[in-house]
Design brief:
single chain; 14 helices; 14 strands; branched-chain 2-oxo acid dehydrogenase activity; mitochondrion; EC 1.2.4.4; transit peptide
């Protein structure tokens, strides 16, 4: 009832003339903004952790677009990870507000809000809790534009949710469900690796013309710290980044796994193995060209992610690269991933893909 009332109020506010002047980038305009801002990322900024970078991005989104709303369980007082701290106090509880404990309702409300040309930023408290909203995401949000023949869409919907290992989460607070949504045409899936990336990618997601699921690596909320530009900037979606160049083997990952893979690259280098490391950033649609170019150079590929190996997104990358680079591959594609079990509690160190597991796989693949 509270959500329905809020939705009606938002609908009435649509006719207000203030919204006719809002600054919202179309896909084309967004690309121009990204081009103009790309050089500015070299500026030194403020040292922030990933949680604070997310908070800063949400501040900017609410400040620059009066049709942006942030909502979810407990977000008005900062959320369980404190990513929304201070938003309700600054922008008011009509734009930043708590919802009932109902993920299907949260996403359903977000679809309706976005369908009325608003920027709906929904928070699912843990990625493990997203499954009750699966039908709304897969059968409604993803198909909204298609089924209406492009007359209507909910492209302003962004679903933020923390995913992955946290050290003590167990099987209900540590899952990485990104592969479920990568199977669905009509939505984008984005996973940042660091504070600077998180801010720029989140702002791009919020301003994108498609519904997006933005998975935030909760393990890095306070562990990852780097210089983050304080101004408003966007990073391109569906554009992978080669964060370390090499010649012997290509490594591909995303999110929290990138820091583990980078450590493995350093260890492999001590043994004379040159690793090229790629951050995919956007899983759907993913940057096949960058990965293909790297594999054509190195002849070998290793993929790593926290989700279980069977049916994980690493399998899609592997299949695509085999199709494109079959005659260039010098070894089978390696996958170092989570195990095909529920995420364990005390046995988490055995479940997650560690640096040593990746180093062993690098050696095995290079020496194949």
């Amino acid at each position: 009832m509270v959500m329905a009332t809020s939705l009606r109020r938002c609908g009435r506010r649509l006719v207000s003339s203030v919204f006719n002047n809002r600054e919202f980038s179309t896909t084309c305009q967004g690309n121009k903004v990204i081009q103009q801002q790309h050089e500015q990322l070299q500026e030194t900024g403020k040292s922030l952790n990933l949680c604070s970078a997310i908070n800063q991005a949400l501040h900017i989104a609410l400040e620059t677009d009066p049709r942006s709303y942030v909502f979810g369980e407990d977000v008005s007082f900062g959320g369980v990870f404190r990513c929304t701290t201070g938003l309700a106090e600054k922008f008011g509880k009509k734009r930043v507000f708590n919802t009932p404990l109902c993920e299907q309702g949260i996403v359903g409300f977000g679809i309706g809000l976005a369908a009325m040309d608003n920027r709906a930023i929904a928070e699912i408290q843990f990625a493990d809790y997203i499954f009750p909203a699966f039908d709304q995401i897969v059968n409604e949000a993803a198909k909204f534009r298609y089924r209406s023949g492009n007359q209507f869409n909910c492209g302003g919907l962004t679903i933020r949710t923390p995913y992955g290992a946290v050290g003590h989460g167990g099987h209900y607070h540590s899952q990485s469900p990104e592969a479920f949504f990568c199977h669905v045409p009509g939505i984008k899936v984005v996973v940042p690796r660091s504070p600077r990336e998180a801010k720029g990618l989140l702002l791009s997601c919020i301003r994108d013309t498609n519904p997006v699921i933005f998975f935030e690596p909760k393990w890095l909320y306070r562990l990852a710290v780097e210089e983050v530009p304080e101004h408003d900037y966007m990073l391109p979606l569906s554009e992978a980044e080669v964060i370390r160049e090499g010649s012997d083997i290509t490594l591909v990952g995303w999110g929290a796994q990138l820091s583990i893979m980078e450590q493995a690259c350093f260890d492999a280098e001590k043994e004379g193995i040159s690793c090229e490391l790629i951050d995919l950033k956007t899983l759907i649609p993913w940057d096949k060209e960058t990965v293909e170019a790297s594999v054509r150079k190195t002849g070998k590929l290793l993929i790593s992610h926290e989700a279980p190996v069977t049916g994980g997104f690493g399998a899609e990358i592997s299949a695509s690269i085999v199709e494109r680079c079959f005659l260039r591959l010098e070894a089978p594609v390696a996958r170092i991933c989570g195990l095909d079990t529920p995420f364990p509690l005390v046995f988490e160190p055995f479940y997650v893909p560690t640096k040593n597991k990746i180093v062993d796989a690098i050696k095995a693949t290079v020496n194949y």
